[in-house]
Amino acid sequence: MKNLIIILFVTVFSYTGLYAQETNDTDQTEITDKKSGKDEYSIQVDGLGCPFCAYGLEKKFKDFKGIKNVNIEMETGMFTFTYPADKALSVEVVENKVEEAGYTAVNTTIVRSDGSVEKNTAVVSLLAEDAEGAVISKAIQVWGNCGMCEARIEKTSKEIEGVISADWDKNTKILMLEYDSEQTDSSVIEAAIAKSGHDTENAKADESNYNNLPACCLYERKQE
Amino acid sequence: MKNTIYSFSLLIFLFIVACDEQKVSKWQEVEKVELAEKIAPIGLVFQNDRLWLADGDNNRLVEVNENSGEIIQSLGNFERPMHIASFNNKLFIPEYGNDKITILENTSRDSLEVGLALDAPAGIHISESGDIAIADFYNHQILLKKNDKWISVGKKGKADGEFHYPTDVQIINNKLFVADAYNNQVQVFDLKGNHLQTIGKETGLNAATGIYVDDHSLYVTDFENDRVLIFDLEGKLKQIISENLDKPTDLIIHKNQLYVINYKGKFINKYKLQ
C-alpha cells in the first residue's frame, strides 16, 4: 500500500512537472515566435521613373538593421519589406523615411505579426461641390524636373485643406490649381510647395530643402 | 572667252563644295527592336557578337537576340546590375544594391577587388590595356585603377572635376570620360585624374546617364529628355536624336551600328550612318 502511494505520488508529481515544463516551453515558443515575428510593410510610392534614384530608396531602407525582403516593383510603384516585430515602425516613421529619400508615399499598409493591420489614409482632395467659397482656378509656375517632382508637388498641394485639384506639367513647369477661396489661397499653397524643395513664382525654397531633393529632382534654379 | 572660263571654273568650284557638304553623314534609325519579357535595360555590352543587357528592375543579366529582342539566356541573383562591361571574355557587372563588382566568366562568378569602398557602383569600363574605371554613384567619385594602383577622382559638387551622381565611364586613348549624370554633362580627365574638359553644358541635357566614345565622337543618352546627343571630341554638338526614344539609358557602337537601349520603352533603337 505504501509503495502504491509512493508510486502514485511520484507519478502525479512527474506528470505535474512535465505539464509545467510543456506549458513553459509553449510559452517560450510563443514568446520566441512573437519576438522573431516579422511585420510586413507595403508602401505605394509615386514618381518612380528614374531607376538610379528608385534603387536608392531600397538602399536607404537597408539602413534599418534587420530589414529583409526589400523590393520595389517599378511598374506599380509598390515598395515592400519585412521588419522585426519587436522593432515595429509606425506608418508615420516609414512615410517620413520614404519622403526623406525624395519619394512620395501615397498609401501605406502594415500587417503586424499578430495579424493586425495599420493603414494611412490617402490624401483626398476637396470636391468642388463641397467648396464653401468661390472655386478659384489658377496657373502657377513651379520649378521641377521629373516624375518624382510631379508626385511631390501635386501631393504637397493636395494636402492643403481647400485644394480641389493640382496638376503639374513637367515640360511647361506650370501647376494648374483649383481651390476653395474660403479655405486657402495660392500663397499658402506656394509656401508649402517651397518647403518641399520646389521654387514657385512667388516662393523660394530654402537651400537646405532644395539640396535635400534627390539627384534627378535638382532643377536648375533661377539666378537672382 | 575669259569670262566664260571664269564662270565655268566658279561653277565647278561651287559644285565641289556642294558635294563636300552632302558628304556629312548623320545617324539614321534603321530598326526598332521590342524587348521580350519586361526587360528594363540599364546597361548593354557586346561580348564577341553576343548582346548582353543589365536588367536592373529584375536583378538579372540577359543575353538577347539583337534582331528579335528574345531572351537567349537569363542569369539572375544580381542586386540591381547597372552599366556593364566586357573584357577578356569576362563580363563585369556593377551591382548597385550590394556595392560590389561581379566578374562573370561563363557561369562562374567572382568579385573584383577594389581598393576603396564603393557605394552604389553604377558603371565600369576596362581599357584595352587593362586599366579600370568605376562610377561610384553615391560617393560622387570615379575609382581608377592604373598600374595596379587605385586612385579616387573627384568629389561631390558642381565645379570642374566634381560630380553629382556619376553613372557611366569609359577609358579610351588615355582619357577617362565620365557621364556626370546629374550635373547634366560629361567630363574628361587624364589617367592621373586631372580634369581636361567638360562637354554638354548649354545643351539642355537632363540626366546624362550613359556614354559611348570612339575615335571621333562622344555619344550621350539624355535620359529625362528622351534624346541622344552626339559631340565631336572637341565638344561641339554634331547631332541630336530626339525621336522614338523613351528614357534611353545606355548606348554602344558595334559593327558600325549604333545601339541605344530604352529603360521605360523597353526597346532597342538601331542606327546607321547615312
Outline of the structure:
With 224 residues, chain A is of the alpha+beta class.
| Number of continuous helical runs of chain B | 1
Strand order of the largest sheet of chain A: 2-3-1-4-5
Number of strands of chain A: 8
**What would you give as the CATH superfamily of chain B?**
TolB, C-terminal domain
Number of helices of chain A: 6
What fraction of the residues of chain B are assigned to beta strands by DSSP?
A: over 45%
Do you know the CATH topology of chain B?
Neuraminidase
Shape of chain A: elongated
CATH architectural type of the largest domain in chain A: 2-Layer Sandwich
Give structural notes.
The complex is a heterodimer of chains A (224) and B (274). By secondary structure, chain A is an alpha+beta fold. Chain A folds into 2 domains: 37-119, 2-Layer Sandwich (Alpha-Beta Plaits); 128-217, Alpha-Beta Plaits, CATH 3.30.70.100. In chain A, 37% of the residues lie in helices and 24% in strands. Chain A contains 6 helices and 8 strands. Chain A has helices spanning 2-36, 51-61, 91-100, 147-158, 186-195, 207-211, and strands at residues 38-46, 68-73, 78-84, 104-111, 117-119, 135-141, 163-169, 174-180. In chain A, the strands form 2 sheets. In chain A, strands 2-3-1-4-5 form a 5-stranded antiparallel beta sheet. In chain A, helix 4 (147-158) crosses helix 5. Chain B is mainly beta. Chain B has one domain: Neuraminidase, CATH 2.120.10.30. Helix content of chain B is 8%, strand content 50%. Chain B contains 1 helix and 24 strands. Chain B has one helix spanning 2-22; strands at residues 27-34, 41-47, 50-55, 60-64, 71-75, 85-87, 90-95, 100-105, 108-111, 121-126, 132-136, 141-146, 149-153, 168-172, 175-180, 185-190, 195-199, 208-213, 217-222, 227-232, 237-241, 248-254, 257-262, 267-273. In chain B, the strands form 6 sheets. Chain B has a 4-stranded antiparallel beta sheet, with no helix packed on it. In chain B, strands 2-3-4-5 form a 4-stranded antiparallel beta sheet, with no helix packed on it. In chain B, strands 6-7-8-9 form a 4-stranded antiparallel beta sheet, with no helix packed on it. Chain B is globular, with a radius of gyration of 20 Å. The model of chain B has no long low-confidence stretch (mean pLDDT 94). The interface between A and B is medium-sized, with 15 and 26 residues.
